[in-house]
Amino acid sequence: MIEFVLNGRPQKLDQVDPNLSILEWLRTKMRLTGTKEGCASGDCGACTVIIGTPDQSGKFQHEAVNSCISLIGSLHGKQLITIEAFRQEPGHPVQQTMMEQHGAQCGFCTPGIVMSLVALHASGQPDASSERAILEALSGNLCRCTGYRPIVAAGREALVQAWSPDDETHPAACLVQEKRALEATLSTGVGLSLPDGPRYDAPQTLDELRKLRGRFPEARLIAGGTDLALEITQQLKTLEHMISVERIPELSGCRVEGDELVIGAATTYRRFHRPISDRWPAFDGMLSRLGSLQIRNRGTVGGNIGNASPIGDMPPPLIALGATLVLDGPDGERRLPLEAFFLGYRKTDLQPGEFIHSVRVPMAQPGQRLFIYKVSKRLDDDISAVLGAFQLTLDGNEVVACRLAFGGMAATPARALAAETALCGQPWTEASVARAIAALASDFQPLSDVRASAGYRLQVAGNLLRRALLASDPRHNDEPMLVTDYA
Asked: How many Cβ atoms from other residues are within 10 Å of residue 10's Cβ?
């Protein structure tokens, strides 16, 4: 059984198919049809809802998420807020300004856009009304009527209207709940199942997780579900058994241990964005382009590593930094270099009963620099064609050490070992970089697919290395990201 609050009303669910998405439950079971389905893959944002998760102080942290790829079991102990929460007059300020600024055209995408802006309004961040914050909030909302100018104007006007959590008459008052109402639901593990059908377990402790993994090694692990849920919505699969890891305290959050930043496997991109970017600033631009804000609010570092995609955005920069992966299981913890975790296309070194516990990222040392460049067809909410991540240790103008890692160039995220050999011990100059670029042909034989041809990938990989050289020159702007459009 799971318990949560929907638009201020307590809900209890039992004997529900755990493959059910929040979107499908809202529309077919609750007849709350304001939330729309546009893509069923987390790309268009028409299904955006707000999830409130209580923190240790008792306050709820509200985030916009894609309900089409969020499963119903993930709601336990949380708030679910839909557009219907604001249907009483006078409505939310975002709704009012959307009308005044003519921000709605056909209207299909409008509920999701409103919810994204309401979540930004509720965040309380000091720059919420800035264009940068508004565009980030809307990065996962597709308006096919191309009405972005009035939508941004509506957001800017609405987000300057402050409100107090103590004002129970404000339309946003439904965003405030006492943690006490849900406290009992947070104390034990929960689950959903159908008689002789699919099963969903959500253990609360590391020991419970170990036992479940030991008993059911074939069960699928799920955290944010932004990738796994696509098997249900796009491939129409039924997942027979899922084990959620998002309620395990040891798997969430970031901490510093010695000279390493330790990131729990169930930590979302949004949660580790600032801790890792403060230490390695190149991550800031890359994480701002990883999926959309809705995806970053749910997707996790462990999920991005565990699905072993050759075009996952996190592995290449973590490999470039020499990150260590911590695995846990029936025989206890073991550690291995992240690059050794990937054995082949979608194949990993994860043993039966094991799970990813955390990733340990070395701190920056004197002389070290990190460059991360993502190339994709569009700026926001897109998958990489090529992602290059380069860690260089420079002594004056000499490259004394380097780690060059790429995604999209092989069956796994991988280092360019021949290019590293060509560069190490050489001056950081155009001639040395040209030799390293030539060596890339020995490192990779990329494939052609819908995102890029093999020739394009090989050429752009070299160009990214050359870009790092140019960015090192004080005469050039050291921009953290590169955007490339191609046919």
From this structure: 11
